[in-house]
Amino acid sequence: MVFGKSRIVGDPKDAIDDAFITLEAIKNDTSREIRLVESTAFDKEFAPEVAEQLKDIILPRKGQTVTHDTAFGVFIGYSLGIDKNRPSAEFRELVAKKMRKDIQAHVSHIIEKNKAARMECHSFYFYFLPFNEADGEKKEIMKSLLEL
Questions:
Q1: What is the pLDDT of residue 102?
Q2: Is 122 domain-assigned?
Q3: Which of 4, 43, 52, 100 has its CA 20 to 30 A from that of 82?
Q4: How many domains does the chain fold into?
Q5: pLDDT band (50, 70, 90) for residue 53
């Protein structure tokens, strides 16, 4: 079972801190989990036997005991702070270098938060998503999605 949290803010440390608040709440109360798959989607996209197998794995049924491991997917959107008025190749190279540096700078903080939350036995998958200006771009993305 993979639970997820996403956060888009200017500073990756703030996003990590916020994510762990939510992840701890999920760990302590899995009844708050959100249903991510509409059950009719199985029948539309898969052969009947495959759809049934997927339903047995993903959709809990009353009285059914299922053993599962819990994992957490964390999507961190943050501001890079790189001047975007550069040639594409140069910009891509700077983004790659900056992201490596940013991620390496926050690994120990993630480990500390994981230990403090007593979640060391769970798998974590962190995805860092670079933005030029996270707060403003987040609003633009939401606005364009709501206008669809």
A1: 94
A2: yes
A3: 4
A4: 1
A5: confident
